[in-house]
Amino acid sequence: MTEHTHISDRPDVPDLTIPTGITPFFFPSARGRLVRLDRLANTLLSRHNYPHAISKLGGEALVLVSGLAAALKFEGSFSLQVKGEGAVSLLVVDCTHNGQLRFYARYDKEKLDLLPKQATALELFEKGLFVLTVDQHNDKDSYQGMVEITGNSLSEMASHYFETSEQLNSWIRLFCEETSEGWQASGLIIEKIASDPSIVFKDEAEITNDEEEWNTLTILAETVTAKEVLDTNLSNNDLLYRLFNSTPITIGNPKPVSYGCRCSRSRLQNILKTFNQNDLENMNEEGNITMTCEFCRYNFVFNQNEIQSTK
Asked: How much of the chain is in helix, strand and coil states, percent to nearest 5?
């Protein structure tokens, strides 16, 4: 993993990459991804200093979106928006085709204070919409699907989405905990698919029919624990073989995930150009205008000269 700092037009925020963040794996009639964000989880979550329940929810959402995006062939961004009517009114996570992640949440502190510290996703949102969007570059076809929130956890909400909107059998478990070393977030996503003849398994004799295999896989997957999936000393391959050693499995090449906010001074300065002079004066504090990126919480300060140059 590498870490350095952006300079110039970009904000001074960590540039952190986890090369083995997502490990794809395959069965005769299913595919999956093991997501382990490692230090990236704490880097993204601690940037916001959200209350515990929202940070935990955010970590689970980061795992979900990065895992889903890794299975798609696209160029652009893949995003989750959950629009709630409870303490959390909006949760946004997006991941680019090369694994760059970012997120933010909007919440009502007074409503949140009435909930337990370990509030479930349903308690945080109450009700609302679960929306997945593929936004492709170069004006290519984009896609958006949405369903009403159903389920107590974000895992259950995502499974309901795929069952309802995509008619796809899926098994999803998302984990996020605050440890002595900071936040850790990991998860498993498995999807039932038609058998892929391009995947070669070591023992073809062990291949069973689709329904039988799916039942076996979900039973094995249910044995996963937060302790082992969040254990940084347990390798991705060892964890997968521990879970699925009794069934044919092929493990693919890992994919990276990284800190991916795409804000910049020039982009925000262009936004300032859309405001009239009266609005700019109202935003001005002692000769400066401060614009904060909701994703990375970096404050861009524009001085009087920069403000004048926008007009």
From this structure: 30, 35, 35
Report helix, strand or coil for 21.
Answer: strand
Encoded tokens for 45: 């979550």
Residue 261, classified by CB atoms within 10 Å of its CB into exposed (0-12), middle (13-18) or buried (19+), is: buried
Query: Which pLDDT belongs to residue 281?
Result: 82
- Count of CB atoms within 10 A of residue 246's CB? 9
pTM of the model: 0.86
Q: Which of 176, 190, 180 lies closest to 103 in space, CA to CA? A: 176
Cβ atoms within 10 Å, residue 175:
23
CATH topology of domain 2-259: Hsp33 domain (3.55.30)
Which pLDDT value is given to residue 12?
67
Looking at the chain, the domain(s) classified CATH 3.55.30.10 span 2-259
For the chain of 311 residues, list the mean pLDDT of each consecutive stretch of 10. 45 84 95 97 94 97 98 93 98 95 96 95 98 84 91 97 90 96 97 66 53 93 96 96 94 95 78 82 83 78 69 51
DSSP 6: -
Buried b (16+ CB within 10 A) or exposed e, 200-229: eeeeeeebeebeebbebbeebbeebeeeeb
Residue 33 CA neighbour count, 13 Å, CB half: 22
- Residue 301 and residue 247: Cα distance in Å, rounded? 56
Q: How many CB atoms lie within 10 A of CB 115?
A: 16
Q: Tell me how far apart the terminal alpha carbons of the chain are, to the nearest angstrom.
A: 43
189 three-state secondary structure: strand
DSSP-derived letter for residue 29 is T
For 265-309, the fitting CATH number among 3.60.150.10, 3.40.50.300, 3.40.50.12280, 3.90.1280.10 is 3.90.1280.10
